[in-house]
Amino acid sequence: MSAAGAGPQPIAAPRKRWRVAYVVSHPIQYQAPLLRYLTSHSAVDVTALFLSDVSCRSYRDEGFGREVEWDVDLLGGYAHEFLPTLGRSDQLTSLRPVNRGIESALRRGNYDAVWLHGYVHPTNLRALAAARRLDLPVLLRGESLLLGKDPAGLKSRLRDWALPRLLRRVDAFLAIGSANRDFYEHYGILPERIHRVPYAVDNRRFAAQAREATAGREGLRSKLGLEQGRAVLLYASKFSARKRPLDVLDALAHLHRAGEQPLPHLVMVGDGEQRDELEQRAAALPAGTVHFTGFINQTELPRYYDLCDALVLPSQYEPWGLVVNEAMCAERPVIASEAVGSGVDLIVEGQTGFRFPVGDAVALADRIARLLALPDRGRALGRAAAERVGTWDFAADAAGLEAALQQVVLCESTEVAA
């Protein structure tokens, strides 16, 4: 029967749209694709209100210890504005820049809700207060977790006193992962007020670029001086004490003393304050084991994920660790410390990777040996990792954000055809 003869067709139900102000420190290479996705694929009209424009040009990243200029589009495809500042706008610390005009920006935007990224910066706190005065519901997405924290420390005791008072003023919470959800529940937030808005990367881009890189893999191996057929581990992060890159070298030294021959190559992507110490420690290993690339930008990173057999992230404290998502998009397993937030959700022991106690180089050496002893050096784990991270995507972010807005927005939203 033709559509014309099928009788009256049901009219699609209208779908609500929400106008949301997203208060965030600066344009972030990981978040720009999410904001574009929300703009074009969700019921959320989001406008980013940036505190600083520091990342819009070349700037000194203290963690990398060098000038950085991102090679991806940070501002295209979504609405945004930069809040006025008193003094320089290209500084970014826990107190700077000093912004003004947050309440007027919220007032003139005719928003349905305010979404805060974090709660520490004074501008975010002023945005929270302004939202309360304007009777706007507040959503909070932060990176806090209990892993790797000293519960008896002074900072933890102060947080235990102050944070519940602050969180009571928030209407809904956007959890980036299970450890982040546990943090909110630890401070008394009811589970029904916490929505899953996971930390994700542009899965399609990283997966596609890693596949494209396969054709040039041997060329990159040759450029770095890697032996044909020898296993490759990848470290891709800042060379800082908090990231504990020295633990990877200690693990390789342990394998060397245990008679492991040949050692896997270790490609260290990044830079930072521990560069000299890392190079000195690497010199004690067999020649040609460790290779330093320096800082590698976003569009080039997939080549290194494709190159490696596994990513290693040994951090002392890591709220999430998006390099884990990136490596898994490239079908590579991950070995991470138990203080890496993403590991709680994305690493299934022995299936998508391995976890080990923070600072335990012997345990890390064991995980490396176990992975490299697997058939095809754990390629089956890599495929399982890609499948698992496939549900950690922007679509899940949109669904969680929409669910939170549906819960807290009491005002009438604009209705449009679905």
From TrEMBL:
Pfam families on file: Glyco_trans_4_4, Glycos_transf_1
Domain of life: Bacteria
Glycosyltransferase is among the record's keywords: yes
Glycosyltransferase subfamily 4-like N-terminal domain mapped to chain residues: 57-199
Protein EC: 2.4.1.301
Glycosyl transferase family domain span: 219-387
Keywords from the named record: Glycosyltransferase, Transferase
InterPro entries linked: Glyco_trans_1, Glyco_trans_4-like_N, Glycosyltransferase_grp1
GO molecular function list: hexosyltransferase activity
Presence of the UniProt keyword Zinc in the record: no
Alphabetized PANTHER family for the sequence: SULFOQUINOVOSYL TRANSFERASE SQD2
Record protein name field: Alpha-D-kanosaminyltransferase
Source organism (scientific name): Engelhardtia mirabilis
Gene (UniProt): kanE_3
